[in-house]
Design goal:
This protein is α/β, with parallel strands linked by helices. The protein folds into 5 domains: about 80 residues, no CATH class; about 290 residues, Aconitase, domain 3 (2-Layer Sandwich); about 230 residues, 2-Layer Sandwich (Aconitase, domain 3), CATH 3.30.499; about 190 residues, Alpha-Beta Barrel (Aconitase, domain 4), CATH 3.20.19.10; about 40 residues, no CATH class. It has 32 helices and 34 strands. A 7-stranded mixed β-barrel has the order 26-29-30-31-34-33-32. A 5-stranded parallel beta sheet has the order 6-5-4-9-10, sandwiched between helices. Strand 24 and strand 25 form a beta hairpin. The chain is globular. The relative contact order is 0.11.
Length: about 900
């Protein structure tokens, strides 16, 4: 029997006199498991993980067969993933800690042992989401922003200090040391992990999940990892495998090499468009072909980072000599690098030019030489625009109707100007398309030395020619790690960036997640007065409506080089081929081509100044790098001491009504529609992360707690309290509820009163009448961040189901994890069914034999008494999804497991 052959796959690797035990996937082929050698490399990692954790309980023989036969429809079913570690950032990490602390409190309340609630795999939390670009364009910007960060977030940071001292396997990286994905890539990733178990030295592939959707960046170094919601991460921490459907693996063949004027950012934007057109949601993408030899790990990481934007679960680059070179370049231990190479060779997982080509479900081809300088926007990352077409596309979109994803400006509005009178006596004019924010920011680009050195070289040439940016452009530089500042300083390029206003303003996600801070005062007033449609250009990965800044409607993604270029131009309404970017001291036109950096110059500076010693030095001192963090004190205790007056940290309500045994599941009767939403509704729309408006349910709540608006902080920073986050759900200022045409923002039509009111207020009225709620949506519902509060808030508002045309992977999983039923239209949608929001819906088929992907019936009752039915697909995609749903979500199920009661 195959079961008896599992032990035969345990092998020994002897390296420098030391024996390491590993589970050999190559020998599975000899034992009748199929052609393992031609499995995609990403599936080989999953296979090794299943083989190593095989126990015929959590991981069974069927699971292993499903992986080895992943391309056979007969084997499509759930498979387990047990990552070797978990990474968190603070916006998603704080609610994870709050949930774990809440579970401990509940465990103590019912007489159990709270210390059962402990991570059993290593967890690293990197604080990177809280810094806001309040100060900019000056030498003291960084100090000012860090000081404000601690003023706003001391209570949250004390919670994280408590977690580090009170939980096992839990480590916190202080603020201002870098972005989670840069720290992961440059420091945490081992590629091959060693662990001693019962005096046996084990070696296996490094793997992880993270509570940030851009965790996928780590696939650029050949480490399998992806983003999950916080509640799913909590299950993983506490020993629950992460189950998901056997993925299709799409092979993206790369050939040729990038032109000298194209960057990794341009490649990432090209692939994002290409794969969105192809449709890869829920699939693995794996890169192969001779073109891999021409892409550095830094460039691969940029492409892998934007995986959520192209919709795949991972965008995987196999381990090869480029990977080993990167480990060496970032100061990793030479002995460990040699061990990585030996192990991956032994496993048949080290890609070479002679390796057999993997078998994929389907393949796509991209010739790297066809990649052109690009931007994406102004509303979605997949909407790529070639630089040469930017002016034409800008004019098209700004005048296009709102229902065509445009801005509906007339010619007179387009040409209208607003006078800016600065306090120093200078004057400028603001016009539609003006660049109000130019930010070198985000995990996508800010640890890629090639694009950052390129930005520095462009700045140098611009300054030498006497160019300057307009005063209305807010500029900021938020490096991905401390290493970046070091090599920019040593190469002499940082002063040129500073000359153009790009001072280091913080080490964190900053502008990319909406922590852009206030605009230039005069610009903000002009927008309020004259409704000028301004733009942001950022080196980020997302540009959804309302995300970057509430007053900035147009948002374009671009390389750091182009960020500096557009800052100089001061407008996106420019054709760089035909119009000068500025004028020199002699009033002669200077064109972009005159200051564009030379590729060979970039390479020369990278080789000279980006040294392994910088990485070693900066990461050796990383835990001591922030004095204010080190001075924070928090006593160790098993139970967190909740402060009922806190507006940041509250005991979560998810266990308040939890019973030891799950309640009997019922059909959903007589529900009202809360909102009818369109396509590509993001988790930013559902649960914004940025600033909290004063005139909003969340703002009103904070004001009632005697908190002034300057101390509101952001939604993201307040994810430790449900009282703010419930009120912020569906509160994005750019969300559009089709139940109330022409109204923008988080409002709905309350039925039966017909009153237009904030969604939160309506939900409280529905709660009083015990009315269940349904949300209706279009395609790609829940795209974007891994934001579990988008599901938590939905659940707490009383929403029982979301009916959409399609779901993004992480949000669908989060809804299930919170006990909200994701349902998918079958051959229909809200428009074809004529739904307008005043109907009463009843969903049947839930209570009787619920199983994965069961078809349910929705009965629609209109106010005129007419009725009709339509079918939906229950997007409970696996048996574990059904189990979570029957238990009311992951958290109640996990707590019941710890209590020791059987799960029904």
């Amino acid at each position: 029997m195959l079961e008896n052959k599992i032990g035969m796959n345990k092998k020994t690797l002897t390296f420098e006199g030391k024996d390491y035990t590993y589970y050999c996937i190559k020998s599975l082929e000899e034992n009748g498991f199929g052609d393992v050698s031609r499995l995609p490399y990403s599936m080989k990692v999953l296979l090794e993980c299943a083989l190593r954790n095989y126990d015929e309980k959590l991981v069974t023989m069927d699971h292993i067969k499903r992986i080895t036969h992943w391309n056979n429809d007969d084997f499509k079913d759930e498979i387990p993933f047990i990552p070797s570690r978990i990474v968190l950032q603070d916006f998603t990490g704080v609610p994870v800690v709050v949930d774990l602390a809440g579970m401990r409190s509940k465990m103590e309340e019912i007489g159990g042992d709270p210390n059962k609630i402990n991570p059993i795999v290593p967890v690293d939390l990197i604080i990177d989401h809280s810094v806001i670009m309040d100060a900019f364009g000056s030498t003291d910007a960084l100090t000012t922003n860090v000081n404000k960060e601690f003023e706003r977030n001391t209570e949250r940071y004390q919670l994280l200090k408590w977690a580090q001292s009170s939980f096992s396997n839990f480590r916190v990286f202080p603020p201002s040391v870098g972005i989670i994905h840069q720290v992961n890539l440059e420091y945490l990733a081992t590629v091959a992990t060693t662990k001693t178990v019962n005096n046996e030295h084990m070696i296996f592939p490094d793997s992880l999940v993270g509570t940030d959707s851009h965790t996928t960046m780590i696939n650029g170094i050949g480490v399998l990892g992806w983003g999950v919601g916080g509640i799913e991460a909590e299950a993983g921490m506490l020993g629950q495998p992460l189950y998901f459907l056997t993925p299709d693996v799409v092979g993206l063949k790369l050939s040729g090499k990038l032109p000298e004027n194209a960057t990794a950012t341009d490649l990432a934007l090209t692939i994002t468009r290409l794969l969105r057109e192809e449709g890869v949601v829920g699939k693995f993408v794996e890169y192969f072909g001779e073109g891999l030899n021409n892409i550095s790990v830094e460039d691969r990481a940029t492409v892998a980072n934007m995986c959520p934007e192209y919709g795949a679960t991972v965008g995987f680059f196999p381990v090869d000599t480029q990977t080993l070179d990167y480990l060496r370049a970032t100061g990793r231990d030479e002995k460990h690098i040699a061990l990585v190479e030996s192990y991956y060779k032994a496993q048949g997982m080290l890609r070479t030019n002679d390796s057999p080509e993997p078998v994929f479900a389907t393949t796509i081809h991209l010739d790297l030489s066809t990649v052109e300088p690009s931007l994406s926007g102004p509303k979605r990352p997949q909407d790529q625009i070639f630089l040469k077409s930017m002016k034409e596309r800008f004019l098209d979109v700004i005048t296009a109707p709102l229902d065509k994803n445009g801005y509906n400006l007339s010619e007179s509005q387009l040409n209208m100007t607003s006078d800016l009178d600065y306090k120093d006596g200078k004057k400028e004019k603001l016009k539609s398309g003006a660049v109000a924010i130019a930010s070198i920011t985000s995990c996508t680009n800010t640890s890629n030395p090639y694009v950052l050195i390129g930005a520095g070289l462009l700045a140098k040439k611009a300054v030498e020619l006497g160019l300057q940016k307009p005063n209305y452009v807010k500029t900021s530089l938020a490096p991905g790690s401390l290493v970046v500042t070091e090599y920019l300083e040593k190469s002499g390029l940082l002063p040129y960036l500073e000359n153009l206003g790009f001072y280091v303003s913080g080490y964190g996600c900053a502008t990319c997640i909406g922590n852009s801070g206030p605009l230039v005062d005069e610009v903000s007033e002009a927008i309020k007065k004259d409704d000028i449609t301004v733009a942001a250009v950022l080196s980020g990965n997302r540009n959804f409506e309302g995300r970057i800044h509430p007053q900035v409607k147009m948002n374009y993604l671009a390389s750091p080089i182009l960020v500096v270029a557009y800052a100089l131009a001061g407008t996106v309404n420019i054709d760089f081929d035909k119009e000068p970017i500025g004028f020199n001291d002699k009033n002669e036109g200077v064109y972009l081509k005159d200051i564009w950096p030379n590729f060979s110059d970039i390479n020369t500076i990278v080789k000279e100044f980006v040294k392994p010693e910088i990485y070693k030095d900066k990461y050796n001192e990383i835990f001591e790098a922030n004095d204010r963090w080190n001075q924070l004190e928090m006593a160790k205790s098993d139970i967190y001491k909740w402060d009922e007056n806190s507006t940041y940290i509250k005991m979560p309500p998810f266990f308040d009504e939890m019973e030891i045994h799950p309640s009997v599941i019922r059909d959903i009767y007589n529900s009202n529609i809360l909102a009818i939403l369109g396509d590509s509704v993001t988790t930013d729309h559902i649960s914004p992360a940025g600033s909290i408006p004063e005139a909003s349910p969340a703002g009103n709540h904070l004001t009632a707690q005697n908190i002034s608006p300057e101390f509101f902080n952001s939604y993201g920073a307040r994810r430790g309290t449900h009282e703010v986050m419930m009120r912020g759900t569906f509160a994005n200022i750019r969300i559009r509820n089709k139940m109330i045409p022409g109204v923008e923002g988080g409002f709905t039509n309350h039925i039966p009163s017909g009153e237009i009111m904030p969604i939160y207020d309506a939900c409280m009225k529905y709660k009083e009448s015990q009315t269940p709620l349904i949300v209706i949506a279009g395609k790609e519902y829940g795209t974007g961040s891994s934001r579990d509060w988008a599901a938590k808030g939905t659940s707490l508002l009383g929403v029982k189901a979301v009916i959409a045309e399609s779901f993004e992977r992480i949000h669908r999983s989060n809804l299930v994890g919170m006990g909200v039923l994701p349902l998918q239209f079958i051959d229909s949608n809200a428009e074809s069914l004529g739904l307008i929001g005043n109907e009463i819906l009843t969903i049947t088929g839930i209570a009787n034999n619920l199983h994965p992907n069961k078809k349910l019936v929705v009965n629609v009752n209109r106010p005129d008494g007419s009725t009709f039915d339509f079918e939906v697909l229950a997007r409970l995609d696996s048996s574990i999804d059904v189990e979570y749903y029957l238990n009311g979500g992951i958290l109640p199920m996990m707590l019941r497991n710890f209590i020791g009661e059987p799960i029904k």
